[in-house]
Structures are given as structure tokens and as C-alpha cells.
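Bump. Still looking for Bifunctional hydroxymethylpyrimidine kinase/phosphomethylpyrimidine kinase C-alpha cells.
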Amino acid sequence: MSSAPRPPLVLTVAGSDSGGGAGIQADLKTMLALGVHGMSVLTAVTAQNSLGVHGAWELPEEAVRAQYRAVVDDIGVQAVKTGMLSSAALVETVAELLAGTDAPAVVDPVGVSKHGDPLLAASALDSVRTTLLPVATVATPNLDEVTQLTGLVVEDETGMRRAADAILAYGPRWALIKGGHLPGDAAEVVDLLTDGSEEHWLYAPRYDNRHTHGTGCTLASAVASHLAKGLTVPEAVREAKAYVTGALAAGFALGGGIGPVDHGWAFRG
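Sorry for the wait, here they are.
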């Protein structure tokens, strides 16, 4: 009996969210929902729930490197997504691994959790700028992360364009600036995707739903999943945006705080 066709292969390099809404857990749920085979390199363990991050423990560099090599050298990979890399040492280790991997890399420069808890040491910011962003196919900062990395405070779409230019100056091929945190009560959420020569403005409805935990992880993983399927960056981002919009609309209450987006929304029709 012949085996079934193998799905595209995607690797996430990120931290664990014990509450299941973000991090490795969100990444793997997204990959399953989008029809790719998800694999993981764990960078940190967090004690986390709907109310916040109550503790975080970073894995040693050698553990991260060993996980990555075990997967890539035997199984292979068609796209990689990075998330929580809490220290300069981990950022530089992962950047080196990505540089030696022939696959697109989606870098989500995670700085703080949905609840405002720091997930990246201030001392690691320069390593993100100088080693990680230069090896990214797509960098996906939100507006808070733009401020952390560039010092720019973005308040409108013109500011998003300036932010994209500043992020691109660090070396990624594409910048996806996520505008969900723009001030005001606009009926739509806007993101900007650009490589410096072409721009794609992506609009989606803004839902009155506070349960948005895991949005950034989910979007970056969805982009990586579609890149692994062979889509171009603009195509992959548009498809990922559509998936995340559905997940946001279906976000549900969990515990006493902010619940997660629903990664399985498309199956619940």
C-alpha cells in the first residue's frame, strides 16, 4: 500500500504558551488548520493563562540548536516561522540557523505578550535588528514592536509607511506592518505589506471582540504555511489575513481574562 501524499513542511521556532492561545500551541493549530505539517523548536517555557504570563524559562542555546538540526537535517522544511526568542544569545543562534536554511523565514519579532508582559530582553533588540531581521523573508511587527525596534510611534497610515521603511532598512525582504493597534475606532483594521517598491494595503473588519490572544503568532504561522505551499509573499499574506480575520471573529472567552482566537473556526461552519 502506498503512503499518502506528504503535506508541506513548516517549522516554528517559538516559546510555549501553557494556556494554548499563543506561541507554539497557536502555531501548530494554525498549521494543522491550513493543511501543512507543523514541527517545532521550543525556545522557552512560559506559565501563562488568560490573565498574563506568570513565569518564563528560556531553554539553553544547545537545546534550541539540537531541536532545529534534528528536524531540518532529517525531515527538511519548506518554511520557518520564528516567535519568542527571549535573549540576544537565542536571537543570534536562530539567525545563524535560518541563514543556513534554504527556506523562506517569517520573523515575528515578539516583544511583549497580549497582556503587556515582556518576552524579549531589552539587550536583545540590537541582535534582532542586526542578525535576525536581515535573514527574514517577511518581518511581521505590530506597532508596539515597531516602536521597540525603530523608536517610531505610529498613529496613522502615513506612519505605517515610515515604519515599513525603517524595518526594511534592517534587511528583511518584506515588511508586514500590522495596524491593529492604531488609535481610534475605525471600522476596519489595516495592515501594510511592502518590499520597498510595491505596496499592498490589506483591510479587514474590526470586530468588537476582546478575545484576541495569539493573533500575531497565528498570522505569522499562516503566512509561513502558505509560503510552504508555494504562494508568493503577497498571496501568502492575503490568505493569512483572511484566515486570521475569521479566527478573530470567532475568538472565545477562556478563564478570567483575554481569550484566544479560534484556530479551528473554519471547521465549525
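Residues 9-257 form a domain with the UDP-N-acetylmuramoyl-L-alanine:D-glutamate ligase fold (CATH 3.40.1190.20).

Edit: fixed formatting.
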